[in-house]
Amino acid sequence: MEWTELMITVPAKDVERAGDIAQMVVPYGIYVEDYSHLEEEAWEIAHIDLIDEELLQKDRTKGVVHVYISPEENPAEAAAFLQERLCEEGINYSLDTAGCEEEDWINNWKKYFHPIPVGEKLLIRPAWEELPEAQGRTVLNLEPGLAFGTGTHETTRLCLKLLERYVFPGCTVLDIGCGSGILAVAALLLGAGKAVGVDIDELAVKTAVENARLNGVDSRFTAICGNLTEKVTGSYHIVVANIVADVIIKLTGDVEAYMYPDTVYLMSGIIDTRLDDVLQAVESKFEVIERLEEKGWVALAAKYRH
Question: Which part of the chain has CATH 3.40.50.150?
């Protein structure tokens, strides 16, 4: 079972933020190469000023974050997660891979991805699997391609659970950072009347449209390629943002422009170490009405303070 190594090269000033994002993908650690303060750190840590010439020749302007993904954890989704989050954070990056051939890690993980129940109402069915016994659950057919969002990641599952609670017949939903479209499509299957998904990644937008078609809800789904809410218009009964803490904090400044007075705002992608930062920003404008947690991840439901 060969693992895939993802190598994310970023400007040295962004290494720490990129590392934080990479840490969201794997629970067992990452490896960071950062030589921007080589001499100072060599002295502070080892009290030496004689450094190997090969190290001295390393590029000081960039850092490399190494992430190791086992095949059953879906390297394709991990890569999509990293790319979407790095773009949302405005970090310039390049992503390289080692280990399996890309064609292998795009497809091999599928044998580990089987139909999974989420919450009380949904059953996520990979499009290549036979339709299982739904046992009264609503089936969401999914072909994630290379976009983030299969329901296997905690942030997505937490959002799906919150959607179950707050979607009502005929409501409108805005999904910011829609990825594969799983949240918008789920909302429509749960009874929403219309959903709009927006993502900075063109591939994600195409995937979301295809998943809406696959589930027969494409006539009620609109996909927009753009950064956050820059191309969004109108008001929505539910706004969902499954992104990262810093972007949620940034969104807090203007997201109410797309809300009704009683809109529910669902936020996920928040690692628990950043929860206080998010709450500090959010609670100035919103009242948190529900919190879900799973394996170090937090999702919030909130309403606008009047």
Answer: 149-304
CATH topology of domain 149-304: Rossmann fold (3.40.50)
CA distance 145 to 167: 26
Residues carrying CATH 3.30.70.120, the chain: 4-107
Query: What are the backbone angles phi and psi of residue 40, rounded to the nearest 5°?
Result: -60, -45
The 10s digit of each residue's pLDDT in 162-192 is 999 999 999 999 999 999 999 999 999 999 9
Closest CA to 242 of 201, 161, 183: 183
pLDDT bracket for residue 241 (50, 70, 90): very high
Tokens 């629970």 belong to 27
Dist. CA 99–CA 296, nearest whole Å = 28
- 4-107 is classed CATH 3.40.50.1970: no
Whole-model pTM: value is 0.75
